[in-house]
Specification:
Elements (H helix, E strand, L loop, with lengths): L16 E4 L5 H12 L4 E6 L14 E5 L5 H15 L4 E4 L4 E3 L7 H29 L9 E6 L12 H20 L6 E8 L11 E3 L11 H10 L10 H13 L7 E4 L1 H20 L1 H5 L7
Parallel strand pairs: 1-2, 1-4, 2-3, 4-6, 5-8, 6-7, 7-9
Helix pairs in contact: 1-6, 2-3, 3-4
Amino acid sequence: MDFTPNSTRYNLPSDAVWFITGCSSGIGQGIAKYVTAHPTYRLVATARKTAALDAIADGPRVLKVALDVTSQSSVDAAVAAAVDRFGRLDVVINNAGYSLWGDTEAATEEQERRQIETLFWGTVRVSKHAVRVMRDENPKSGGRQGGIILNVTSMGGFLAVPGGAFYHAGKFAVEGFTEAFAKEVRPEWNINFCIIEPGGVSTNFTGSSMDVCQGHPAYLKDAPARLLEQYMMSSGTASGWSDIGLIAKAIDKLVTSGDRIPIRLPLGSDSYGAIVHEVELVKKDLEDFKELSNSTIPTSK
């Protein structure tokens, strides 16, 4: 059986409706500004509080909506408002999130659950609505069925580093969910999924968008997570990070190319390089332990 996702080419309408979560700052805000600058795109910009969306220009093609992705009723209301205003959704970007950083043993259960609730369950809630609207509502507006769902993880959705156990758990979950959902939707619905995996981006991700655990006494100053923290916070680290405007431009090119949509797209040379390296490590382990892996299959008598 062939479960290849995104098997049909996609053509974005010229007046596409973009629905973006987490527009108060960072990547979400950058994409939202890019969309508002386009002469025909329409935008639904969301954040927990609409006052946080002041940096995004107002206008007849812009709808600002309060959205807390951890609340099902809030998600329901935001999607309903978007459909009521524009009649359809063409590009849905699940971007809302933050990182929980620190020693795994030091995290509280409240911190752990809040991280997964935001990163994973928030994406699930919005994605399920997106598929419903793209399949059932879009044709009612006089347009065609279909759309693109972009779930933003990071290179941390493909590989893990010390200090980010629960962040990685949430992002890995989003990637598995996205791959499975992409293989479930029927080709004739013309709904495509893509996992966006940025590397370092010039945002406040290591500032206000980060929750830090108290250090655990068993992990000393030279522990792997401490060394990585020092590197991430050092002044020169961000010099090679991606520009938000170029991230937005790349995403627009992805959805307007008329070509097939890949199931995942690393953005940034750091993300691309790290993922390629991780694939090579996995491949080496597979080869080195191939005999042991296959030893569980009984030999024929």
